[in-house]
Each structure stands twice: as C-alpha cells, then as structure tokens.
Amino acid sequence: LALTQHSAKVNAKDAEGKTALHLAIEGGHPSVITVLLGEPSLDLSIRDKSGTTVFAAAMTRRNNTAAKAILDREPNAAQQFDHKGHNFLHVAVAKNDLESVLFLLSIHVDLSTPTKDDKQLNPLHLATITGSELLVRNLLLAGSDINGLTPHKQNVLHLAALHDHSHLAAVLLENNVNYDALDADLNNALHIAVKNGHVGMCKSLLADCHINATALNLRGQNPLHLLACHQPSTASAIAKIFFEVMPEYPLNSPDVHGNTALLLSYQRGGGQLCRVLVTSGASLGTSNTEGENLFNSAVASRALLAALLDSLSTEPPWAEGDNCMECASKFSLATRRHHCRHCGRLLCGKCSDKLLPILKFALNKPVRVCHICSQVLTLGPSALT
C-alpha cells in the first residue's frame, strides 16, 4: 500500500514479464491483490513471457475470488484469446475442467463465442466433442443454443454422431435438437453415423427420434447408400438395425446414378452387407444408369454372386425395364418380356430358356430361369467359381 501511495509503477515487469499482480496471484496474497486492483493505472491486459494475463493466472490457480475481482474491473477479461484462438471457456471445456466451466458460467460469459481458428466451434460444440454429458447439460442449462451451427453447418447432433457419443444423443434429443438438420453436404446426423460405422449412434437415431432415414445428400445418397460405399467393419450390424427398426425401409432406392445399396456393396466386395441386404429383400436384378448390375459388374470373382443367389430363400422382386438385362435386346411385339423366377431379372425368351423347379420357393413345377441361375440351382454356390 505504501509503495502504491508513493507512485510505484504497478505495471512494471520482472525478468519473466510478470507484473506485481501476477506475483500476488501466484503467491496467494489476497490483500495485495485487492490493493493493486484498486490502482487506476493498472493494466490488466499485460501478458508475461509465457503469454499469461493476470486473469489467466487466477484461473490457473483456481483463485475464483481474484478472477471475479478482475472481472468486476475489466468485464472483458474472460474473453481474451490465447495464441490458438481459444478463450477461457473454450480451454476449460476442451480440458473437461468442470470447476472452471461452472465458475465461468456463474459470471455469465458469452456462450456463443466461437474459437478464432479454422474450426470456429462454440463451447457447446467443444463439449459435445469431448463427450462429457455433465459439460453439455450445464452449458444447455446456462442457455447455450443447441442448434448453433459450425461453418460446415453441422449442429451438435452431427458432432455427436461423428465422434460416436451415442450417450449424448438422448440428452440432445430431450433438449429439442433439430435432428433433421442438414450440413453443407446435405448430410443429416444419420448419414454421419453410418459413414463412420458407429453402431450405437445409428441405433439411437433410428429408434429414439423420427430422423429422416431416407434423406438424400448432395451426392443423391441416402444413409444406406453411404453405408454400402464406405463399408465400415460394422456395416452388416448397422444394416440389420435399419431393417429391425424400419422393416419397410426402401432398400432398393437408387442413388443419383441409379445404384442401389446392394450394387454399391457388391462393387466393393462387401459380402456380409450384401447378404444382409439380399436377406432383407434387395433386388438382384436392378441396373444403374450405365447398365451395370450384379451380373455384369467387373468384379474380380463371381463367387459372391453365386453365394448370394444360393442364399435366396424367397422369390425376389421382379425388375422392370425396356431391354433384356442379359443381351440388351429391346422388347417389342416379337421380343416378349420374361423374368427369371430365381433372380428376378427382366429377360428375353432366349436368355431365360432354362426350365427348372425351384423347390426352396415352393415352385414345384419347372419355371423359367436364366443361364446363371440354372447353373447355381444345379451345381450350388461353386457353380461360378
């Protein structure tokens, strides 16, 4: 006190760039802190050589009394950013430091301020990424906007799906998150969860809300198309959840290029997912806009096709079109439409001239089948190897 009364320089720094207030906070001297904060010329923005302000020093030492006193004098002290573009709330959330977060919430810091980096995430985004339910709940109770978006137009449900925090899904849904929100690529949270193979998140989204499970993204793909394209190791488990929760899911819907989920999976050798799709009623005979289907796709081996045909237990849906799916002949009065009763493909008479009973379909009398199905029905799954 005597020094300040005799015009001592309160902003003077030592060799480490620390002011007297830095040292008082580090030493835990409340009376000195009070005197220094009463000095009109005190500069609270000074940083030491490590970049630490006096407010940061108070927060580091969990000296909430000093931190509150600093804020009483300089309300914007808590909004200072570090060299990474993070303010104190960002740092506390990222570190899962609940005590510091609760203190900052008690002094009503701005909850909407994004980080000043390329990600531009607000505190609730960061809390969702950490996966802390306590942080998320406290930020929501303090008034955080649950539908605030990242620059990529993702909300917290997108982020929970991306980081596989299925335990947060219920919290976000009960707080009225927009579960059908679309990001810049028109993906909803289910697209994100499926793409990354997150089983628990897929189950939560499909079972606990009415998310649009058939929404098309910017590439014209629904979540099942994405599952087939990316082939995560959990693909078959996720597909089973789809069909358990939504037995009428349109699994034969084409993407913008006419590809069904089955064709996309077959092109990538996704045998397990293909089997689940076929068992669930996927059409084997559908062609994309380039005329490609399971029977003419340029794959290394046709063993998977044979296995899928052999696994058929019920007659698949019949394909439609204007041309034979085997020889491409255009149908006319002279060239009639037929179907292979085993695979469902649309064929001309020449390409479906084999007659065989299909006992597993309870077709005890001979019916038309294509040449490939004739081989599989006669020789079994080894027919095409």
The DSSP helix count reads 19
Give me the secondary-structure category: mainly alpha
Helix-residue proportion = 40-55%
What's the Cα radius of gyration?
Answer: 32 Å
Strand content: under 5%
The overall pLDDT, averaged over residues, is 93
Major sheet description: 2 strands, antiparallel
CATH topology of one domain: Serine Threonine Protein Phosphatase 5, Tetratricopeptide repeat
Q: What is the string of helix and strand elements?
A: HHHHHHHHHHHHHHHHHHEEEEH
Question: How many strand units?
Answer: 4
Q: Report the CATH C-level class of one domain.
A: Mainly Alpha
Low-confidence parts: 1-6
The CATH architecture category of one domain equals Alpha Horseshoe
**CATH superfamily assignment of one domain?**
Ankyrin repeat-containing domain
How widely separated are the two ends?
93 Å
Shape: rod-shaped
Query: Which sequence of strands runs across the widest sheet?
Result: 1-2
Short précis:
The protein is mainly alpha-helical and 385 residues long. The protein has helices at 2-5, 20-27, 30-37, 54-60, 64-73, 88-94, 98-106, 123-130, 133-141, 156-162, 166-174, 189-195, 199-208, 223-230, 235-245, 261-267, 271-279, 303-311, 371-379; strands at residues 338-339, 346-347, 354-358, 363-369.
Structure write-up:
With 385 residues, this protein is mainly alpha-helical. Among the domains are: 80 residues, Alpha Horseshoe (Serine Threonine Protein Phosphatase 5, Tetratricopeptide repeat), CATH 1.25.40; 75 residues, Zinc/RING finger domain, C3HC4 (zinc finger) (Herpes Virus-1), CATH 3.30.40.10. The chain is built from 19 helices and four strands. The protein has a two-stranded antiparallel ribbon with strand order 1-2. Strands 3-4 form a two-stranded antiparallel sheet. A hairpin with a 6-residue loop joins β1 and β2. The longest helix has 11 residues. The protein is rod-shaped and about 105 Å long. The N and C termini lie far apart (93 Å). The N terminus is likely disordered.
